[in-house]
Amino acid sequence: MFKKILIANRGEIALRVIRACREMGIKSVAVYSEADELSLHTKFADEAVCIGPGPSAQSYLNTQAILTAAEVTNADAIHPGYGFLAESADFANMCKKHNIDFIGPDGDMINAMGDKASAKETMKAAGVPVIPGSKGILNSADEARIMADEMGYPVILKATAGGGGRGMRVVYRSEDVAMFYGMAQAESGTAFGNDDLYLEKYIENPRHIEVQLIADSFGNIYSLGERECSIQRRHQKLMEESPSVVVSEELRHKMGEAAVAGAKRVNYVGAGTIEFLLDKHGKFYFMEMNTRIQVEHTVSEEVTGVDILKEQIRCHAGEKLPDWLENIRLRGHSIECRINAEDPAKNFRPSPLFIESVHFPGGKGIRVDSHIYGGYQIPPHYDSMLAKLVVHASDRKEAIQRMLGALKEFIIEGPKTTIPFHIQLLENEKVQSGNFDTHFLESFKYDPSRE
Hints:
With 451 residues, this protein is α+β, with helices and mostly antiparallel strands. The chain is built from 15 helices and 20 strands.
């Protein structure tokens, strides 16, 4: 087992890893930017090292500074959390070169799964259902048009190195392919330094369902059930839950088997997620694999009782997963709301202000993962998430009511937040009945006067 882990991240996920380390008897090292000097992860870790100025490029993405901090503190492993360097093949390889364990896949695995075109072919070879589309990278707009005409519209052009909805365009007519091809290529090149595109059949009104996996180095890979992630804005998730209201036991078994087969195909180790699109006919298709811990791992923890962070660390330390994971059953229902410093009345404009005071909700089945406190200045350099509010209850109806109560108890004075947005969302009849898809928020109307 590792003796000391450096956490190459900040905010709530840094605190989450620190707490897992503490329970496992592992020393922790926090790294922080000058803007995060007073952040809680710097106070609760056993050691803390400043790695640069506020902007991410000069701190949390500064690989040399992070590796130097690990060497100076004698850390034998680095946990990247999510975001920043979590899916950087170069950083994983640099850790290996410096004889530091990277708590995540190796560089080759990250590259293989990060390239969506090659990941799709890998999953197809493993027998995982994939969306019909190009076999690899497109060479031209003409090739894309010919293929789309054969496949039938609508189709979607995607950046092979994409994420967060960038480098994606849905095309409904043959005559629009060239224009959208150029737009997607330009956006992808600017965002990712890679303008390669591929083409897929566009699944209309799908649900976004992902399967949580945990895998050790002995060939044991287990599914921890699915998460419903269809409530999203501009391809960014806002609310997640487990289990999904539309996934039956039979479908859960099939999706779990497919996800495990895909992970076994690449000899995956650690915590990972395979994401699917589920159409209205109950057919599911591979979308992508995330080779890291996810923001929403919390809801899977609540319905399975598994501490995914601790199991992830154990897997990368070379330990075997417990056999009882093979017979895991989901208990009750869990929902997570991401609480962001954003103004939903002004198109979710960031609100990085001084937090005057905070009151966290409490009670049975309520969990708050957060790094904020009264007197905390929200840095303008990073993601706007302030907290993850998670509830667990015996069924979905009770979980919704518990979440509504917790949201109304959650008080953050100073910045605008998405708390009132989530209240209106969960009071919506379609959300309460589970009748939504990935396009739901396009028609959902937020009423600022109800704040």
